[in-house]
Amino acid sequence: MSTNRIHSKGDYRHEEAYAGEAGIYPGMLLELNSSGKVLKQNTEGAPAEIAIAEEDALQGNTVDTVYTDGEIVSYMLPVKGAEVNVRLATGQTITVGEGLIADADGCVESADNAPSGTEYNILFTAMEAKTTTSATALIRARVR
User: How far apart are CA 61 and CA 120, in angstroms?
Assistant: First the structure.
C-alpha cells in the first residue's frame, strides 16, 4: 500500500527549519544541530526527540521529494500514540507489532537489528508488515 502523507492520525506540532545537509526525505528522523538546522538523525538506537520530515504539499511536493541543503524543511513532532509513516531502512523485514529504532541515517530499523550489548530506544511500533530490499520505503508506525 502506498501513501501520500507522513501524518496518518493523532496530534502533532508542526515546525520548520533549514536543512543542514542534502538527502533528507519525508519520513526521515531529524535532529537539530548547534546552528538550528535539521540533519538526518545519525545515531543508531538513539533516545532522540521524535522529529519527522514531512512532505511540503504547499509547494506541490510529495513524500518522494527530497529536500536539498539549505532548503526549508517541514517537520512534525508527534505525540505518543500518533500514527505516522516513517522511512524504513533497506534490508529490513518487519512484522506488525515489531519495535522500531532509529538507524544511523535518518531511517528506522527493527529493534532486533541493534548490536548486542547496545542500549537503544524503541521509538515506534510497526502497524504494518513491510520488507525493503534495495530502497527505503515508508512504513506505518505508532509513536511509543
Answer: 33
Cα–Cα distance measured from residue 90 to residue 143, given in angstroms and rounded to the nearest whole number: 21
* pTM given for the model: 0.94
Domain boundaries, the chain: 7-79, 85-143
- According to CATH, what is the number of the domain 7-79? 2.40.340
- Residue 71's nearest CA partner among 104, 25, 7, 102 is 25
Cβ 52 vs Cβ 31: under 8 Å? no
Which residues are bridge partners to 107 per DSSP? Answer: none
Tens-place pLDDT, residues 63-86: 999 999 999 999 999 999 999 999
Contact (CB, 8 A) for 109 and 101? yes
